[in-house]
Specification:
By secondary structure, this protein is of the alpha+beta class. It folds into two domains: 46 residues, no CATH class; 84 residues, Winged helix-like DNA-binding domain superfamily/Winged helix DNA-binding domain (Arc Repressor Mutant, subunit A). Helix content is 36%, strand content 16%. It has a three-stranded antiparallel beta sheet with strand order 1-2-3, covered by helices on one side. Strands 4-5 form a two-stranded parallel ribbon. It is globular.
Length: 146
C-alpha cells in the first residue's frame, strides 16, 4: 500500500499480521485492515495529533530487533545517541549505526531519533539528513539540534 506524506509517497508492507516494511517511494498496491490502520496512524502522526504508534511490527531477530525495540522506546520529541543505545545493549556504537541504517520500518520505528555524539548521523530517506531534521522538527526536537 502506498500513501502520500509530507516527504513524498511511502509504501507499507505487511507480513503475517505485522508491519514489515515502510519504504520511501511508490510501489505498494492492495490494502489490508492493518495497512489501512498504519496509513491512518501515519496520517495522524504527520498531522501532529499522534505521538506514538500502536501497530504490530515485525521486529527482526538478533541485534537488529533489539535495536528496533530500543528505538521504539524513545518518546516522541526526544533523541538518543548511538552511544546511548550501544551502552544499553552492550555492543559497539558502530553496530548500532549499522542496525539503524538497516531499519526496515522507518518513522514507525523511529531511527530518526538516533543521533551521533557530535552530529546528526545518517538517514536512509531521500533527502538524507535533511529529512531526519524535518522529522525531528515535526516532533519538536529541533532545539536539540542547535
Amino acid at each position: 500500500m502506498t500513501l502520500q506524506s509530507p516527504f513524498g509517497p511511502l509504501t507499507l508492507r505487511e507480513d503475517e499480521g505485522k508491519i514489515a516494511a515502510l519504504s520511501w517511494g511508490d510501489g505498494g498496491s492492495g490494502s489490508t485492515p492493518l495497512l489501512n490502520e498504519a496509513a491512518r496512524q501515519l496520517g495522524e502522526y504527520f498531522a501532529g495529533t499522534r505521538h506514538a504508534f500502536d501497530l504490530p511490527v515485525a521486529f527482526r531477530p538478533g541485534l537488529q530487533g533489539a535495536v528496533m525495540r530500543e528505538m521504539c522506546a524513545i518518546p516522541f520529541g526526544e533523541t538518543r545517541t548511538y552511544g546511548d543505545l550501544a551502552k544499553s545493549l552492550g555492543v559497539p556504537a558502530q553496530a548500532i549505526g549499522q542496525a539503524c541504517g538497516a531499519n526496515p520500518v522507518p518513522i514507525i520505528v523511529p531511527c530518526h531519533r538516533i543521533l551521533g555524539a557530535s552530529g546528526l548521523g545518517g538517514f536512509s530517506a531521500p533527502g538524507g539528513v535533511e529529512t531526519k531534521v524535518a522529522l525531528l522538527r515535526h516532533e519538536g526536537a529541533a532545539s536539540l539540534l542547535l
